[in-house]
Design a protein that fits this description.
Blueprint: H1 26-41, E1 54-59, H2 65-76, E2 80-84, H3 97-105, E3 111-116, H4 121-128, E4 134-140, H5 146-159, E5 167-171, H6 178-189, E6 194-198, E7 214-216, H7 219-222, E8 228-231, H8 246-253, H9 257-260, E9 268-270, H10 283-286, H11 293-314
Parallel strand pairs: 1-2, 1-3, 3-4, 5-6, 5-8, 6-7, 8-9
Helix pairs in contact: 1-5, 1-11, 2-11, 5-6, 5-11
The structure holds phosphoric acid mono(formamide)ester.
Length: 316
């Protein structure tokens, strides 16, 4: 489907939905990161910013991190939060997504948080909802995962003094990764000077040059002297055929402590999760001193608090 990126802004050019990164400015991103920093400084505190708002989460695809941190974020902002149990919902009796949304609208929901395996589903829902309702994309197919990208930027900002001169490498299955696409767009908006993607040719999009990144095939070369490494898992659920064996993959692209010595000593190792130990990352690295993987998870709460409160407060 053709995706209209303008749909996420209201008539006053304020963010109404949070669907993708493409049309965000550096100041939009910094506003989100600054607000997340404020919430993180008051970790565990309950705010009443969204008292009276009702948020429904619709996860048509599995999730641990995104689903749980959205729920925690909404509850810390005092919103009423409904977790729709898709596996036991009326979609199993043939109800369409549109009818499901209209049904939830009739229950006075203010916001839908949507994850779906089909790219463009959140945009479709945003184009169908009542004008007073906002939609957040919690990951759609291999297209976009904008809130993950924001929490990744937040994590990088906490560990590195500036975005401008950073050297970042994203390693693995770029072809099927919604995270990689949203992260690359965010890094570019923030002015990161060197972004490379690293992986076997079969997992690299043909149009990588249009994405404004370089390509390095060998892992050791790709992580040489970098500040940030973002590891990705093989997204086998999005592959039509097996593109690589996991044993071969670990030999060539699994990040071990020995290979990590090619990067700077203060490199941070990131991974959006879920991680597959012994496939794309060795346990020594995942649990090692350079890993910020669990910091990313924690950052997800503050970032999602920031996005929920920004979007719902824009309606006032
Ligand atoms: N990073 C991420 O989206 O993880 P979950 O699938 O657990 O939400």
């Amino acid at each position: 489907m053709e995706i209209d990126y303008n749909i996420q802004f209201d008539s006053k050019n304020k963010l109404k939905h949070f669907l993708n990164i493409e049309l965000l400015s550096e100041s939009h991103i910094n506003q989100i990161l600054d607000l997340a920093e404020k919430y993180e400084k008051n970790e565990g505190k309950k705010f009443d910013d969204l008292n009276g708002s009702t948020i429904a989460s619709l996860f048509f695809e599995p999730s641990t991190r995104t689903k749980t941190t959205f729920e925690l974020a909404a509850k810390r902002l005092s919103a009423d939060f409904i977790n729709i149990d898709i596996a036991n919902s009326s979609t199993l009796k043939g109800e369409s997504i549109k009818d499901m949304i209209k049904t939830l609208e009739a229950m006075s929901c203010d916001m839908f948080i949507v994850r779906h395996s089909v790219s463009g589903t959140s945009h479709y829902i945003a184009s169908e909802v009542d004008k007073n309702i906002s939609v957040i994309n919690a990951g759609d197919g291999s297209h976009a995962h904008p809130t993950q990208a924001m929490l990744d930027m937040f994590t990088i900002r906490k560990h590195k003094s500036s975005f401008k001169n950073l050297k970042v490498s994203i390693v693995g299955d770029i072809l099927h990764s919604r995270v990689a696409k949203s992260v690359i767009t965010s890094l570019k908006i923030l002015g990161v000077s060197t972004i490379n993607i690293v992986g076997p040719k079969s997992l690299i999009p043909n149009n990588y040059a249009d994405m404004g990144v370089g390509y390095i095939e060998q892992l050791e070369d790709g992580i040489s002297n970098v500040d940030v490494i973002i590891m990705l898992r093989l997204q086998i659920e999005r592959m039509h055929e097996a593109l690589i064996s996991t044993d071969d993959y670990f030999k060539d692209y699994g990040l071990t402590q020995k290979k990590l010595s090619n990067a700077k000593s203060d490199v941070i190792v990131m991974h959006p999760g879920p991680i597959n130990r012994g496939v794309e990352i060795d346990s020594d690295v995942a649990d090692g001193k350079n890993s910020v993987i669990l910091d990313q998870v924690s950052s997800g709460i503050s970032i999602r608090m920031a996005i929920l409160s920004l979007i719902l407060n824009n309606r006032k």
